[in-house]
């Protein structure tokens, strides 16, 4: 069943780079103009005409658009370029991350630590993670892949979404959050919308936000690569879905789990007749880690790129020899690029 089937569930979850949409993308790299400085990565360039969208008053990462080009950052960003709130500085975030890593190493982590047997993500370590709401109900997860574009599962389709970006806790804000609306959805044309809970093929959809995200260290797009990862690759899944199954236990904060891509034949053996070459399976066999109800549409991240969209799997979740099934994003790069360019 899809990871978003149950009513009332809270829903979330190297290589060539595709070209971004719209006029102005693909401007050749150029030195930073007067009044701007390079990001921390060194070389800088304008990704497109107009003010760079990747800057904040105290921090400037070498954020990259889909052309893999860092942005220039104004030495004194204008107030209009800033999001309200008091988002912790990267130094504060790094200190938090160090404390969390120390806790993980020494074992001093209290309470449940799962998506299904996962752990709490270090705050803002998944800056591409988005949450799609329908009014006040959490519907699905999604991945920011460009300032105005999200990638999610087609079975999550609704007429309108409220998009939450930069969140760690959905119940308590820390100043990093951004909220956008989205009214345009582009499911894959071959997705069977008449049988969304039975036919899992082509379970992929683009969502266009009304206004672009303000790119900061806590809100960043994730690379989409046409290079598929092999079996055995180590990957990470994230989401706000249930932490236990079949009982529902919803988390307060974003959860992560480390999973491994399994061989296509093993995936076919687990779900006879239901696996296509546009799907990929991942799990941790001995520990039972998995995505579950509420994680639909969220990312499967491998080698720094988006390789999967949380789609469907066994109910209850994390059953031995029943891996999670993901839409294989590398098979859809041409469709993603053309859809963004034409809309």
TrEMBL record:
One of its GO terms (cellular component) is extracellular space. GO terms for molecular function: serine-type endopeptidase activity. One of its GO terms (biological process) is protein maturation. Gene3D superfamilies: Trypsin-like serine proteases. PANTHER family: KALLIKREIN-11, KALLIKREIN-RELATED. Residues 115-341 form the Peptidase S1 domain. The keyword Ubl conjugation does not apply. Pfam families: Trypsin (PF00089). Keywords: Disulfide bond, Glycoprotein, Hydrolase, Protease, Secreted, Serine protease, Signal, Zymogen. It is found in: Secreted. InterPro entries: Peptidase_S1_PA, Peptidase_S1_PA_chymotrypsin, Peptidase_S1A, Trypsin_dom, TRYPSIN_HIS, TRYPSIN_SER. Belongs to the peptidase S1 family. Snake venom subfamily. The gene is KLK11. This is Kallikrein related peptidase 11. Signal peptide: none annotated.
């Amino acid at each position: 069943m899809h990871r978003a089937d149950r009513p009332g569930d809270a829903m979330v979850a190297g290589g060539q780079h595709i070209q971004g949409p719209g006029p102005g993308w693909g401007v050749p790299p150029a030195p930073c103009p007067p009044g701007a400085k390079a990001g921390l990565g060194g070389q800088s360039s304008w990704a497109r005409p107009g003010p760079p969208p990747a800057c904040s008053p105290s921090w400037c990462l070498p954020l990259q658009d889909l052309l893999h080009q860092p942005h220039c950052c104004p030495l004194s960003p204008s107030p209009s370029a800033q999001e309200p709130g008091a988002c912790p500085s990267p130094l504060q975030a790094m200190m938090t991350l160090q404390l969390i890593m120390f806790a993980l190493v020494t074992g001093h982590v209290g309470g449940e630590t799962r998506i299904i047997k996962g752990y709490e993500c270090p705050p803002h370590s998944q800056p591409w993670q988005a949450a799609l709401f329908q009014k006040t109900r959490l519907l699905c997860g999604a991945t920011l892949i460009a300032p105005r574009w999200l990638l999610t599962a087609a079975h999550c389709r609704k007429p309108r979404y409220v998009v939450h970006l930069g969140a760690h806790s959905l119940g308590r804000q820390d100043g990093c959050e951004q909220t956008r609306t989205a009214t345009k959805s582009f499911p894959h044309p071959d997705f069977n919308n008449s049988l969304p809970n039975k036919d899992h093929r082509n379970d992929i959809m683009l969502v266009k936000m009304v206004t672009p995200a303000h790119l900061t260290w806590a809100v960043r797009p994730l690379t989409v690569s046409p290079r598929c990862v092999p079996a055995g690759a180590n990957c990470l899944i994230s989401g706000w879905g249930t932490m236990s199954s079949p009982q529902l236990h919803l988390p307060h904060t974003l959860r992560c789990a480390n999973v491994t891509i399994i061989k296509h034949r093993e995936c076919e053996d687990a779900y006879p007749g239901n696996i296509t070459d546009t799907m990929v399976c991942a799990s941790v066999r001995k520990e039972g880690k998995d995505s579950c109800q509420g994680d639909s549409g969220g990312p499967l991240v491998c080698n720094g790129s988006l390789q999967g969209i949380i789609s469907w799997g066994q109910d209850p979740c994390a059953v031995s020899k029943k891996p999670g099934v993901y839409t294989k994003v590398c098979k859809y790069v041409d469709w993603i690029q053309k859809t963004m360019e034409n809309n």
